[in-house]
Amino acid sequence: MLDYLARHWWVLTVRGAIAVLFGLCAIFWPDLTLILLAIFFGAYILVDGLFAGVSAFRAESGNRAPFVVAGIAGIGFGLIVLSWPQITVVAMALLFAAWAIVTGVFQLVAAVKLRKEISDEWLLVLGGVLSVLFGVLVALMPMVGVVVIAFVIGAYAIATGVLLIGLSLRVRKADKAIQAHRAGEVGGTAEGGAPA
């Protein structure tokens, strides 16, 4: 799993950048209508789900489950929101809460699977814990107004995006270390195999 993430570290960077961009839009335009906010939210979840799905198909077969479920959940929730943008504030808040909880749980599962492979899995753990806590918080208080939901969603998206970008940079370092190690093994084999 680390090898796959290391080779495709940029996917985490793109997901993080999209999350930060969405978060900034939600914070700086909190007076968006509910329909516009729902469309932005649905598009963000859908794109994030598609990236998770791509990760699932490219990962090793034994490590696909967290990516598959996160991808299906993101695409499903995104399509629901995009096909029903007139949803009420409460329905949107509950959909967002469910998505945040599901995503957080699978980030935690991925962190557990990676704990022996990387030393900085705490970024994934932190992202998962924040996602679950945020989802529970929104589920407990779904009656807050559109402006508050927009601000909270924006702050959450920015925090998640920053964590994903930070993780991508850590994984990129791991990729460089893996490539250097492989180059050393190839060089050592070539030296050892040379005729005397």
Automatic annotation (TrEMBL):
It holds the Pfam family DUF308. It comes from Nocardiopsis mwathae. The keyword Repressor does not apply. This is Uncharacterized membrane protein HdeD (DUF308 family). Coiled coil: none annotated. Keywords: Membrane, Transmembrane, Transmembrane helix. The chain crosses the membrane at residues 9-29, 35-54, 66-84, 90-110, 122-141, 147-169. One of its GO terms (cellular component) is plasma membrane.
